[in-house]
Amino acid sequence: MSYLSIILLAIALSIDACVVSFSYGLVYNENRIKNSFLLAFCTGLFQGIMPCLGYFLTGFVKECIEPYSKFIVFVIFVYLGVKFIKEAFETEKEKQLCIDFKSLLLIGTATSIDAFSAGISLSLFGNKIFKPAVLIALVTFVNSLLGFATGGKLKYMPVRNLEISAGLLLIFLGIKALF
Questions:
Q1: pLDDT digits over 21-44, tens only?
Q2: Would you give the DSSP letter of residue 25?
Q3: CB 111 within 8 A of CB 46
Q4: Which residue pairs, CB below 8 angstroms and at least 24 apart, start in 93-102?
Q5: Average pLDDT over residues 75-95
Q6: Residue 95 carries which DSSP code?
Q7: What does the pLDDT average to over 5-15?
Q8: Torsion of CA 27, 28, 29, 35, to 10 degrees
Q9: Sign of CA dihedral 57, 40, 145, 165
Q10: In which domain, by residue range, is 118 found?
């Protein structure tokens, strides 16, 4: 697989992370730099690790996990989306200044399922995995930062509307994963 093909693959794989980061960028008004880097680091890390796992576990994954991957992504995104919408309607909110660890793990996992599959494909094509995994991680990191920053440009909207919009966007991503 050529470097151009790997770069295009990295861009395609990073789209989900960019959209999720955009959703979080809509909601978080405090500690924006810290949150954007936490999210970008987490999504980039998972996008870099998952192709390696897929690469080395090709036989096992193909048979046991692959049939359920779309459903796993669906459940995680819908959970996060419903959480956003629910929080939008809570009257007494505890102000969350940073994205919590559990959410980061869920986001990292959900956005990198495709990268896991890409690792399987790279293995089947006979490619090495190190350089593509690093490139995928870096592209995802950058796209995640860009998504968060873009979401932050829409701060003028009421917070409740932003939380509902972000939740609906995540639920949409979950439904999209099923097809």
A1: 888 888 787 888 998 999 999 999
A2: H
A3: yes
A4: 95/30, 97/30, 97/31, 98/31, 98/34, 98/35, 98/38, 99/24, 99/28, 99/35, 99/38, 99/39
A5: 72
A6: P
A7: 84
A8: -160
A9: positive
A10: 3-177
Burial class (CB in 10 A: 0-12, 13-18, 19+), 18: buried
**Pick from 112, 132, 136, 102: which is nearest to 20 by CA?**
112
- Other beta carbons within 10 angstroms of residue 67's beta carbon come to 9
- The label of the residue with tokens 């998972």 reads 46
Mean pLDDT for 94-114 is 79
Residue type, 144: S
Spatial CB neighbours of 58, under 8 Å, sequence gap ≥ 6: 119, 120, 123, 124
SS3 128: coil
Give the number of domains in the chain: 1
Mean pLDDT, the chain, as a whole number?
Answer: 81
pTM of the model: 0.74
Task: Give the pLDDT mean for 94-103.
Answer: 72
pLDDT of residue 93: 54
140 or 150, higher pLDDT: 140
